[in-house]
């Protein structure tokens, strides 16, 4: 979309009529195409002014941009210009395998994946497993499994490899040591020999006097000979980064201009622990640089640490990536999505029959960053409609009560798609065997044709394939049982009705497909052939014989699902049961 604008530069003597493209951040004056110089747009003290009234003639009205207008105008340009400046777009999702993947993590991974695919880039999975004491066995493998299940597979990962590996931080320790040593050599970091007891004492003193605990930078002032002596004596030590004042502001893709003067509120942070493992701050900077990450999209809880990371980039002489901090994902009532809430883990959604695309849809629906907001979007639509400038700073409130509705819509789409339907059939086959096992007397119920028929008939009525293995649908897979008393209570004509149903099925066995409409008519005709049983009670008898239940889908639909031979089999059992009674 081209906007006709005038941009007034302070140096030329006249206004240039231009066309500015919001998508590629370029403007054209006459025949020439120029790229907007974002530093001028964002940092120049002389603000750009706009005129929407067009034409060279007439009075020009210039509008000074306030900061929010600058943010609004520049945001789309920024992210695409940043994309050009950094060459290939490379983004990463870097979870810690101290737990399994939950909805908050999935949301972060999803936005990174969509960003990469929108701009033809790469999506990297990196495991931040440096906190060895808190690692959960199997979590790293499970995180990668869940990303693949969710339809957001990484292009580079611990499992799949890639040219910038290894992708496990625990296998990159020498790289962090080299970076820490270079910081020490250039005077940007120093060895700290303070004992745990001393640090604990500092913390207690600060809390007692109502201050925020912080390291007092004591070892910063050690003389070189004191450091050498302690190193020779093998005194345990960490490496701390020397925080400097004068942090440069950075333009966050979501939150706009930001800076945190960390040196005023924090002590010098540890970058290398005594066990030789790095802290998050050093490891993520080293990895993002060496893996050529162009854009860091992460949770807004890291916004306050970004200035510290930028100081590290500057100290190491590296160009930082572009940062974008995503607002928090919260419960509908504004409370935190607790990681201890069992039901927010992706594996539990998978087990309960939630479809991955429904999870992705509800997670993006409650958030922001898209040109439209509607239910039922698939991945290609999410990518097409993604617009980073529309990501808002306020938290996304997730209403999981609506997941069933999202799932129902996506389930309908899957049932209508031949390839996706095969996936559903296989999933349901596994669930039937898991729930009913040896109770399944007729293996034909596991046949794809039978399951496909059931899915088509129940489409729009069920929210998940797991609904179909609940007790109300057990009749589809297991032959029901019912007592003689139940049958007798409904009519004295049960035997006659059973015979009529068997005859009806024999007449319909010619190979033609049964339909609900056709059977509804046939059943009304059948009911008229009884002497003293009302239509409603005839339906109750047929329902009981077919399902052992007193409610459920229409009798006609039940019959179409089961098919003539199974219906005949079940009514023959009714006749046998009645003959034993006599």
From TrEMBL:
PROSITE patterns: AA_TRNA_LIGASE_I (PS00178)
CDD domains: GluRS_core
Domain Aminoacyl-tRNA synthetase class I anticodon-binding: 444-574
Compartments it resides in: Mitochondrion
Glutamyl/glutaminyl-tRNA synthetase class Ib catalytic domain location: 88-404
One Pfam assignment: tRNA-synt_1c
GO cellular component: mitochondrion
Coiled coil segments of this chain: none
Predominant localisation class: mitochondrion
Keywords tagged on the record: Aminoacyl-tRNA synthetase, ATP-binding, Ligase, Nucleotide-binding, Protein biosynthesis, Signal
InterPro entries found in the cross-reference section: aa-tRNA-synth_I_cd-bd (IPR045462), aa-tRNA-synth_I_codon-bd_sub2 (IPR020751), aa-tRNA-synth_I_CS (IPR001412), aa_tRNA-synth_I_cd-bd_sf (IPR008925), Glu-tRNA-ligase_bac/mito (IPR004527), Glu/Gln-tRNA-synth (IPR000924), Glu/Gln-tRNA-synth_Ib_cat-dom (IPR020058), GluQ/Sye (IPR049940)
GO MF annotation, one: zinc ion binding
An individual GO BP term: glutamyl-tRNA aminoacylation
Similarity-based family: Belongs to the class-I aminoacyl-tRNA synthetase family. Glutamate--tRNA ligase type 1 subfamily.
This protein's name: Nondiscriminating glutamyl-tRNA synthetase EARS2, mitochondrial
């Amino acid at each position: 979309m081209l906007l006709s604008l005038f941009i007034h530069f302070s140096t030329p003597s006249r206004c240039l009529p231009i066309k500015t493209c919001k998508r590629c951040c370029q403007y054209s004056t006459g025949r020439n195409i120029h790229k907007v110089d974002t530093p001028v747009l964002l940092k120049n003290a002389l603000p750009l002014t706009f005129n929407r009234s067009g034409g060279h003639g007439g009075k020009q009205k210039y509008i000074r941009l306030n900061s929010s207008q600058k943010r609004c105008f520049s945001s789309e340009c920024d992210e695409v210009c940043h994309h050009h400046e950094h060459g290939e777009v490379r983004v990463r999702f870097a979870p810690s395998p101290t737990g399994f993947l939950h909805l908050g993590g999935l949301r972060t991974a999803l936005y990174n994946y969509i960003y990469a695919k929108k701009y033809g880039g790469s999506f990297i999975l990196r495991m931040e497993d440096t906190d060895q004491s808190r690692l959960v066995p199997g979590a790293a493998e499970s995180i990668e499994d869940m990303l693949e299940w969710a339809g957001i597979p990484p292009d580079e990962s611990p499992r799949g490899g890639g040219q910038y590996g290894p992708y496990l931080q625990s296998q990159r320790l020498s790289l962090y040591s080299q970076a820490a040593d270079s910081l020490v050599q250039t005077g940007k970091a120093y060895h700290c020999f303070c004992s745990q007891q001393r640090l604990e004492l500092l913390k207690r003193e600060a809390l007692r006097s109502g201050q925020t605990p912080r390291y007092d930078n004591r070892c910063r002032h050690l003389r070189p000979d004191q450091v050498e002596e302690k190193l020779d004596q093998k005194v345990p030590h960490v490496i701390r980064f020397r925080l400097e004042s004068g942090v440069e502001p950075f333009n966050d893709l979501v939150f706009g201009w930001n800076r945190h003067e960390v040196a005023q509120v924090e002590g010098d942070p540890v970058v290398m622990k005594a066990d030789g493992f790095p802290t998050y701050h050093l490891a993520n900077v080293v990895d993002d640089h060496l893996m050529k990450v162009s854009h860091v999209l992460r949770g807004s809880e890291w916004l306050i640490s970004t200035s510290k990371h930028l100081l590290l980039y500057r100290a190491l002489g590296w160009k930082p990536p572009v940062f974008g901090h995503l607002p928090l994902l919260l419960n509908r009532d504004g409370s935190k999505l607790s990681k201890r809430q069992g039901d927010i883990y992706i594996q539990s959604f998978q087990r309960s029959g939630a479809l991955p695309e429904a999870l992705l849809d509800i997670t993006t629906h409650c958030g922001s960053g898209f040109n439209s907001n509607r239910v039922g979007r698939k991945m290609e639509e999410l990518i097409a409609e993604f617009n980073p400038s529309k990501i808002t700073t306020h938290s996304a409130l997730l209403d999981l009560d609506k997941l069933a509705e999202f799932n129902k819509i996506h389930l309908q789409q899957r049932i209508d798609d031949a390839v996706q339907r095969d996936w559903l059939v296989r999933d349901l086959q596994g669930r039937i065997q898991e729930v009913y096992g040896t109770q399944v007397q007729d293996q034909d119920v596991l046949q794809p044709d039978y399951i496909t028929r059931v899915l088509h008939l129940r489409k729009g009525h069920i929210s998940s394939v797991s609904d179909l293995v609940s007790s109300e649908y057990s009749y589809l897979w297991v032959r029901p049982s019912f007592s003689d008393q139940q049958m007798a209570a409904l009519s004295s004509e049960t035997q006659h009705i059973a015979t009529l149903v068997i005859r009806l099925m024999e007449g319909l066995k010619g190979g033609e497909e049964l339909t609900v409409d056709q059977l509804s008519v046939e059943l009304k005709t059948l009911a008229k052939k009884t002497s003293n049983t009302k239509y409603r009670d005839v339906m109750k008898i047929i329902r009981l014989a077919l399902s052992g239940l007193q409610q459920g889908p229409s009798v006609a639909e039940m019959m179409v699902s089961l098919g003539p031979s199974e219906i005949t089999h079940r009514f023959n059992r009714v006749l046998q049961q009645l003959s034993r009674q006599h």
